[in-house]
Amino acid sequence: MAGRGMPALDAPIFTALRPLLGRLPRDRFPRHDELNALRTPSVVSGGGAPIRFVPPAASPQYEVRIFESGEVETRPGSWHDLFNALVWLAFPKTKAVLNGHHYDEIRARPGERLRGTARDVLTLFDEGGIVVAAADPELSALLREFRWKELFWRRRAEVLRSMRFYVFGHAIYEKALEPYKGVTAKALIIDAAPSLLKAPLAQRLRELDARAADYFSGTQALASTRNLSPLPILGIPGWEPANACEEYYDDPSQFRPRSKTGDRPRF
User: Fold this and answer.
1) Class of residue 63 by CB neighbours under 10 A (exposed 0-12, middle 13-18, buried 19+)
2) Largest CB tally within 10 Å, which of 31, 41, 54, 202?
3) What does the alpha-carbon distance between residue 187 and residue 175 come to, in Å, rounded to a whole number?
4) Distance between CA atoms of residues 41 and 149, nearest Å
C-alpha cells in the first residue's frame, strides 16, 4: 500500500506489520473479506471467538462485542481501524488478553462511566504501546531511567545489536504516517536472549506476543499506568534520519529527563 493517498509503509516503525502489509492491495484500503483472509486459527477474542473484521454497527459495547462474537468493528478507509486489525493479526495473544480484561472490567462495573486504572492501562498500551526486546539489561535500565542520549547515541551500536522495537499501538502506527517530533509510545520491556534477536521475524513476533500476553495476564500489570516506560520513538536509531546527528538528542522538548518522582516498578 503506497501513495495520505497511500503512503509508503516500509519505514522501520512498520516492521512488525511488514509481512501482513505485503499481502494487502498496494493502491487502496483492503476490504473486510481481504483482511479476514489473513486470519489464522490462533486469532481469537478474549472469549475464544474467532476474530472477524466487520463494518461498524451502532453498538456501544465495542469490547464486549469482540469478546462474545469475535466481531471487530473496522471502518472502511480508516487508518486507525486498519492498523488495529493488523495488530490483531500480528499480536493475537496479547490482543486477546487485553480484550478479556476489558470484558471483565466492564462486567464488574456495569453502568460506570469512568474506566478505572485497569482499563486506562489496557487502553494506553492498546493504542500507544511498543514491545521492546532487550538482550542487555544495562540498556533496558537506561531506557527506564530516561537517559536518552546515553542510550541512543553513546551506546548506539549496542542498541542496534541488542535491542529490537516493535510497535503494538495502532494509534502510534497512525501517527507514523505523518510523524512529528515528540511522538511517545509506552514501552513493555521484555528480556530476550541474543538468539531471539537474530531469529526470523515471524519467530520473534510469536515469542514476544506470548511474552507480552503472559505479562498482561497478571494483575500487577494493570495496577498503574506508570508500569509502562515512555519511549520517544523518533529517537530509536534509524527511525528518523535526523537522529543520525548527536545534536538531535539535545532537544529537551522531545527527550525529557526523568522527574524526581518518576520511579516506576520494573517488569
Assistant:
1) buried
2) 54
3) 16
4) 43
DSSP tag of 208: H
Distance CA 127, CA 117 (A): 15
Query: Is the pTM higher than 0.85?
Result: yes
Question: How far, in Å, CA of 176 to CA of 22, rounded?
Answer: 18
pLDDT digits (tens, 9 = 90+) for 192-226: 999 999 999 999 999 999 999 999 998 889 999 99
CB 89 within 8 A of CB 20: yes
Three-state secondary structure call for residue 150: helix
From the CB of residue 256, how many other CB atoms can be counted at a distance below 10 Å?
Answer: 15
Beta strand pairing call for 129-134 and 184-191: parallel
Residue in the block written with cell 547515541:
153
Pairing of strands 184-191, 71-73: unpaired
Q: How many residues does the chain have?
A: 267
> What residue type is 79 in one-letter code?
W
172-204 burial string, b = 16+ CB within 10 Å, else e?
Answer: bbbbbeeeeeebbbbbbbbebeeebeeeeeeeb
Alpha helix ranges (H) inside the chain: 18-21, 32-36, 62-69, 79-90, 92-108, 116-128, 137-144, 148-149, 156-162, 170-176, 194-198, 201-217
pLDDT at 160 over 50: yes
Look up cell 506476543; give the residue: 209
CB atoms within 10 A of CB 39: 18
Distance from C-alpha of 221 to C-alpha of 38, rounded to nearest angstrom: 30
DSSP conformational letter for 153 = I
Q: What pLDDT digit, counting tens, does each position of 15-25 carry? A: 999 999 999 99
Q: Which three cell numbers stand for residue 134?
A: 532487550
